[in-house]
Specification:
The chain is α+β, with helices and mostly antiparallel strands and about 190 residues long. It folds into two domains: about 20-80, no CATH class; about 85-190, no CATH class. It is built from six helices and four strands, in the order H-H-H-E-E-H-H-E-H-E. It has helices at about 20-45, 55-70, 75-80, 110-125, 135-150, 165-170, and strands spanning about 85-95, 100-105, 150-160, 180-190. It has a four-stranded antiparallel β-sheet, with helices on one face. The longest helix has 29 residues, at about 20-45. The mean pLDDT is about 85.
């Protein structure tokens, strides 16, 4: 009995497998996306003024991507020149004549994440379209009236201005009354729901 074995020729490179040929483009795509994603995260705060024209042009490219993923929020807070804060002061008057005064957000709110949520609600109030502001204010008044059992609620928008260098040098406090601008928003009747 004789056995005949035929050996394949030995080559330096193995034949590419289907698995490997698919994996290479996927790796390229994943690495490209990762580089783009990280660059977008860095470009967002870097594009805040003062910045170069190149950085602002890069922002135009990555802004839609960051907007879809909601990753472009809060950069102005940490930028070199953050804006003023928008707060909402209220007076809730009950039928018996007692008045409850407060402000949203309230510094005593705990957990701190809830305080941050309230702060973002009032902050977005300053950016709301003008035609929606009356509805926005009424919704705040209705909520406050419901929470405190009030029949009338007066709202005042408070803009907390950034301290000037002179105020800081003169040992001014961040919560000095002079650092707030008051804008009355109106008095609202509450449904009592």
């Amino acid at each position: 009995m004789s056995i005949h074995v035929e050996l394949a020729p030995i080559t330096d490179r193995p034949a590419p497998s289907l698995r490997r040929s698919i994996r290479s483009p996927l790796r390229w795509a994943l690495n490209s996306w990762l580089v783009f994603h990280l660059a977008a995260i860095v470009i967002a705060p870097a594009s805040m003024r003062p910045s170069s024209e190149l950085t602002r042009s890069a922002w135009d490219l990555v802004h839609p991507y960051l907007q879809v993923l909601y990753l472009n929020h809060g950069n102005q807070f940490f930028a070199p020149e953050p804006g003023e804060s928008t707060l909402l002061a209220f007076e809730a008057e009950r039928d018996d004549g007692t008045v409850i005064r407060g402000r949203i957000p309230d510094r005593t709110t705990w957990p701190r994440l809830l305080y941050h949520r309230h702060f973002m609600l009032t902050e977005h109030m300053s950016d709301a379209p003008a035609e929606l502001l009356p509805l926005w204010h009424d919704s705040y008044a209705q909520h406050i009236g419901s929470r405190f059992g009030a029949s009338r609620v007066r709202l005042t928008q408070q803009t907390h201005l950034l301290p000037t260098m002179e105020r800081v040098r003169d040992a001014g406090r961040l919560d000095d009354p002079e650092s707030y601008e008051q804008q009355p928003l109106g008095e609202f009747r509450c449904d009592g729901d």
